[in-house]
Protein: Diaminopimelate decarboxylase
Amino acid sequence: MFVSDCYNVNEKGHLTISGCDTVELAEKYGTALYVMSEDEIRSVCRRYKSSFERHYNGNGTALYASKAFCCKEICRIVTEEGLDLDVVSGGELYTALAAGVDAKHIHFHGNNKTMQELCYALESGVGDIVVDNLNELHRIEKLSAEKGVVTSISMRIKPGIDAHTHEFIRTGQIDSKFGFALENGEAFEAVKEAVACENVELIGLHCHIGSQIFDKAPFVLAAQVMLKFYNKIHTELGKTLTHLNLGGGFGVKYKEADAAVPYEDYMSDVSEAVHAACKEYGIQVPYIYIEPGRSIVCEAGLTLYTVGDIKTIPNVRTYVAIDGGMYENPRYALYQSDYTCLIANKVNEPADFTATIAGKCCESGDLIQENTLIQKPEVGDILAVLSTGAYNYSMASNYNRNTRPPVVMVRGGESRVIIKGETYEDLVRNDV
Ligand SMILES: *Cc1c(COP(=O)(O)O)cnc(C)c1O
Structure:
């Protein structure tokens, strides 16, 4: 019935998350409200961990791509579960450090890291900088020399595989703003330069082939392509790397029909392919990183709203307005993303009412879902949108000077605020 195990329905016919009644949460904290299940987040972390244990002798780690949902508490939770963190900006790095995460477990990504961000990363001692381009390599080398340190780096490679949802293609595509292309020799030349640098230590290679991937095959192909290059570096440059980062993009369920691969299974086929390739090349198997973002937090989260006006336009459609919108969930406006919506206080009633869920921003495109089936709505009902844990809060804005809602974490029937809701004073804090 639901997209994730953390959702259920209680004797009152109310939607629950991790044992908490969502209608009571809405009363207690107000709406709009983001709710996240700590139980579910921890369970997903453990499933990724067990994937390495079961299939790869524990010789790897999942990194949480913090851009999916970044705040101090999530950094603490995932690192407690043994994951490393991936950050892509000075602000995400600051958040992780403020949460007390050991810098050695932080990997710094991004396609245009500023000088200020690079200095900050070096001064904090992050474990690994994933280098995107040659300018950046030169800047890191220079900064490291000035500081008298040797910086561990990986290099972001475009493996020429593009995977999204149920399809993946070998594109050989070099049209991406991220990383070094394999096909035209750019990556090999860049690796040569990196190996020659005195103040950087190249430890591995990285790739990231897409998002919402529902298949293990593209990851296997990526591993094969990357290992071939990894071995070329070994044989032609005499440089032995130790790490291979296969990126993130593991699919999650927004709708019941989405067929996500169980997270504990991702490493099985990859492991086989890696062992086979390394045997063929006569090299040691690398330490493997994967970088799930969305899948760690997405299904653990839902958003609660109060139904406001309901406008039926005869022979057209019915708009159900909520006290939120694109400022706190821009994903439908950005990419027509699917979501499961339901009336949280009427879960057991038939979902036979076709509604378009509209936000309160001054944009016609400010919709959360169009023509979706929900229980018959009435003013004052609590509408829940499921699977909003990823790329909702982290993409939220103050458009129309709306205040970002609070985030409440639930665990075993208990709830607590982990990010306070913004106030009007917050909105003018930086105005002069
Ligand atoms: C966005 C991103 C991820 C995480 O992707 P998900 O689809 O959220 O799993 C991992 N690695 C890199 C480099 C990314 O840019």
In short: The CA atoms of residues 62 and 290 lie 5 Å apart. The pocket of pyridoxal-5'-phosphate is lined by residues 65, 67-68, 86, 109, 208, 211, 247-250, 291-295 (CB under 6 Å). The mean pLDDT is 95. The radius of gyration is 23 Å.
